[in-house]
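Sample 1 of the test manifest.
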Amino acid sequence: MTADARPSRTALTNDPRVRGFVYQALLVAALAALIAMGWRNAVENMQARGIPMGFGFWDQTAGFNINQTLIGYSALSTYGRAFWVGLLNTLMVGAISIALATPLGFAVGVARLSPNWILSRLALVYVELMRNTPLLLQLVFWYNAVLKALPGPRQSVSLGGLVLLNNRGLYLPRPQFGSGALIVAAALLLAVAIAFALAAWARRRQEATGLRAPVSPVAALAVVGLPALAYFAAGEPISLSYAHLAGFNLAGGLQLYPEFAALVFGLVTYTAGFIAEIVRAGVLAVSHGQSEAAMALGLRPSLTMRLVVIPQAMRLIIPPLTSQYLNIVKNSSLAVFIGYPDLVLIFAGTVLNQTHAAIQVMAITMAVYLAISLGVAFALNLFNARSALKER
Amino acid sequence: MSVSQPAAVAYVRLAPEPALPPPLLARGAIAWARANLFSSPLSSAVTLALLALTAWTLPQLFAWATTRAVWSAPDGALCRAHQDGACWAFIAQKFDYLRYGSYPVAERWRVDVVEIVGAALIAWLLWPGAPRRGLAAALFFLGFPVLGFVLLRGVASLGLPVVDTLLWGGLFVSLLTALVGIVFSLPLGVLLALGRRSSLPIVRAASVVFIEFVRGVPFIAVLYMANNMLPLFLPAGWEPDRFVPPLVGTVLFAAAYMAEEVRGGLQTLDRGQYEGAMALGFGYWTMMRLVVLPQALTRVIPGLVNNVIGLFKDTTLVAVVGMTDFLAAMDNAFKDTAWSGPTILETGYVFAGLFYFVFCYGMSRYSSAMERRLAVGRRR
């Protein structure tokens, strides 16, 4: 139906389409005016203060040092290099924290559901403590009151001789790869491939015949046994180097700086509290009839959990879990407060203060976080489309 | 057929014997323990291990906080001598600083008044069943910000000397940041949520872009952006107060999260509600104000309160742009060389943790109580 075909009873000012058009035109005009004004002011202000307009600073020498880098960097490197150092540090903290927070969160969530009263109460206390105090407070507590208060290297706290802890950081054994280590890696890859193939075959067979195969023990045997065989066959190419006292400091081992250790520990314990609640809510949301039906079919409690409850709970768990993963990446910017050189501290902090190129630097920083968020959101939508209930 | 009285035979019982109590193992504390603590060998082992752990740590914690603690001392020397107890003397000594920052002592009553009025208004607003909650909302969202500005900053012509924000600090700055965040972000969030559900494509696109942009970046980056970029976009010569950029950043950040919460409430609303309102001849804003928003907002009160908890925890981050909130005031207090020592750090952080915990846990209790209350009305 076109506008002409309608009886022209309504006044033009009352036609919803006309009004909608006018409202949107006004909104566009207001936004455009705001942006134009802001842009003009920004250009004037930047010229008045001598702030560079373009991205020329990217290739200039940074002139500051960074104590924890994954790629080569020195004070002579460029601001662009500093950006990559910060980005990689952010991604590394995010990845390690996610990898550790997930099992911890699932464990606490399962403990919350445990029939053992004292275990579920303690899990509840943990969850409430973590969720109801600010992450920043927890981070500065771990950093200032715990890690910085540790004794010096000569009085390191030793955890079984393998891990040393002192006020310069956490020392783990560092694996050292000799020639032939590649064979072990190849064996590991092969074993993982075998495990996946086995799982696929078992799933097909179960769907066709209803018979279950003992996949997990066989897969575990392959994943542990094959690399072990390769390790001894290749003449033990991998060894561990332990930290030991040499003079006033520790030598050898893998040193994790206290800033890094505090940040990861704080992020992991904090986020695990949220993940635990997500897991608990997901499992509780699976209707009781589902597990009753599974039991009526004769499945044991552990199989009921694995085959009926968990697959359905995962559909509810994964979306909020993903947003917790994004929160970890975003919260890693709290590194600013304890001095871990992440993207925000290096780039939005030091680089911005040295170059004064506020708009460019902030635009790049925001773009990085947005790219991560939107990328994960896209992947999540794919997952949701795949796991949505197939209804008739 | 004759009904005959049974002969009084010694071994036939005429009255039923009272039921025996259930066996001791089926009820009471023992049965409860068997079901909840020792249901299986594994469960028993876990129970014993956890009991041992609590029996070992709790008394230590208690002694640290009370019997071994230093309750009053002129400076940190006594606390440094008592390495295994809390140093509450430090909190007592620094309490006024933690509460008001460097706000002039003679003017601190103004902070107290604002806090009391704010607390009273919030209690009025949150009490389900309190009379005239609409009036409370109007006072809280319109009158209270004006009162707060006049009293906290001061208006010289009213006889209230202006207090520079450089002197503001401590607990009241944390509360102020959270309150400004709530008061301005909630209406803005409602507008954004309506915009996102609007049928006008440009309005919808603008709302989506704003919400997704803000939710995709960390709060610290928003604060940095507000602090470094906002002054550049203002005309030359406009120098906003140093509190304004971080507060603007807080409001915009919180608004995006509020908007998503409100949108969730709008989505649960039945289509018939809109159709009914339109059939009555309501225009868009009348429909939203009288029919849609009252229902949608009530449904998401628990979610909104959870957002407020998050906002309150996030106020600790404003320290990154130079505002002295409660936690930053605590950090400043640690810098006093007369009060330095490991137990003082621990005590300070534990005290700050208790403070945040009491606020946030209280709010989350309120939120879940509201959730149960709302569930009663909607249960079929």
